Amino acid sequence: MDNLILLPAILFPAIPLMMVNFGNRYSSLSTLIRKIHDELINKKISKNDKSANRYLAQIKILRQRLVLNRMMQTTASLSFLVNLMSIFFAFKYQEYFINTFLFAVLLFSVSIIIYIYELQIAVQALDKHLEDLEEL
Questions:
Q1: What is the DSSP letter of 5?
Q2: What does the pLDDT read at residue 2?
Q3: Dihedral over Cα of 106, 109, 115, 121: its sign
Q4: Is 47 helix (H, G, I), strand (E, B) or coil?
Q5: Which of 48, 70, 89, 121 could form an S-S bond across to 96 if both were Cys, CB 3.0 to 4.6 Å?
Q6: How many CA atoms lie within 13 A of 42 on its CB side?
Q7: 44, 64, 109, 124, 127 from 103: Cα distances, Å
């Protein structure tokens, strides 16, 4: 049981690093949303405009990505908290240690799966930009 305390130590640096990555994705996503917002407001594009459909498709994808990003960050944060709890349980309540640690690993895994899915959606968003270039 003494060596098992090293298990949470393995996850301890990985989770915050992924959370920084998720935060960076959120920052770039928010910048992109603000840019699209400004373009739409400044150009005063109506729903009848030809480019409006592409903007609407991009907005739909950005909404999805925002939801996924929130889910990624939430599950990663919960994973970090549960990992901290498992360290506490390793010293105080050893009977709960393994289950708590496994739950932290599960949460972290879910966060990474959501991250992979969000990456796939990000590629769809880039495809929308390429559609604009193909018409030129």
A1: G
A2: 62
A3: negative
A4: coil
A5: 89
A6: 6
A7: 49, 26, 10, 32, 37
